[in-house]
Amino acid sequence: MNSNFVTALTRALPTVGRSCQLRAPAFRLTRPFSSTPTILESAKDKTRQIERQILDTPAEQQPASENASISAITRMMQGDSGRKNATVSRDYTRMAETLESEIIKNPYTDRTPPYHLHVYCHKHNTLLTLTRPNGDPMMALSCGHLGFRKGKRAGYEPAHQLSAHVFAQIQERGFLMEIKRLEIVFRDFGPGREAFTKVLLGNEGRNIRGLVCQVTDASRVKFGGSRSPRVRRL
Fold first, then answer.
1. CB-based burial of residue 141 (10 Å sphere; 0-12 exposed, 13-18 middle, 19+ buried)?
2. Which of 37, 125, 130, 147 is least surrounded by Cβ atoms within 10 Å, i.e. has the fewest?
3. Any idea of the CA torsion for 128, 133, 138, 141, to the nearest 10 degrees?
């Protein structure tokens, strides 16, 4: 339809020509769709977006440009840390397997490291040493500390008195508060060995023997070695 005719008709008959006016298509009135990428508000937002991409994307799937931006020293450090982490993970796996097997064998046992009471029963003396799990000595006494001198330190009675005195000292110094497990380590076969056992099983050791979790014999065994001294003949 001619535009001049429509204009003249609209002026003559405004009511009729109102419905005949040309209208612009709806798609022309709307704003055309923008295909340009969204511009970030600031450099901080851009940095955060890059960090999210790095954290969300695995190292194998990161673009080559990001890998190229990493320096050679950084890649070397990452490689070393990867090898160390692999070694540590293997060690922890072995430890976990060992601990799991122990728990399966004895599920109700305590896993805290024990304290040690070393009983050195020499034929001429008896020495008792209490140590922490790492080997630090807490108390060390012998028959000489009780007033026995020279040949009097040997025998059953001095060892008996020494054992009773050591058990009393353990209680008086408050060591029972920190000792949860105790391992007794015997060495040699002097007269003090039987005396210590009697005291531990007697009334003096009633507060100590409940803590004993293991008894070990650490006596030295000679295979060959130097020639022994001749047997004394009277």
1. middle
2. 37
3. 10
d(CA 167, CA 210): 13
Q: Residue 65: what pLDDT?
A: 47
Separation of alpha carbons 110 and 102, rounded Å: 11
**CB within 8 A of 62, min separation 6: which ones?**
54
pLDDT at residue 145, as a whole number: 94
Q: Which of 220, 199, 217, 218 is nearest to 209 (CA)?
A: 199
Residues near 157 by beta carbon (within 8 Å), at least 6 away in sequence: 195
* 86-90, 178-182, 225-229: the lowest-pLDDT one: 86-90
- Give CA–CA dist 124/149, Å, rounded: 11
Per DSSP bridges, beta strands 115-121 and 182-187 are parallel
pTM to 2 decimal places: 0.53
Helix, strand or coil, per DSSP, at residue 132 = coil
3-state secondary structure at position 139: strand
DSSP structure class, residue 33: P
CA 20 to CA 26: how far, in whole Å?
17
Alpha helices in 106-215 (DSSP H): 156-172, 191-201
CA distances to 43, 52, 72, 117, 146 from 129, in Å: 68, 60, 57, 6, 15
CA-CA distance, 132 to 231, in Å (whole number)?
A: 39
Beta-strand relationship, 126-131 and 212-217 = unpaired
Domains of the chain: 114-131+144-217 (3.30.420.80)
> CA dihedral defined by 149, 150, 151, 155, rounded to 10 degrees?
50
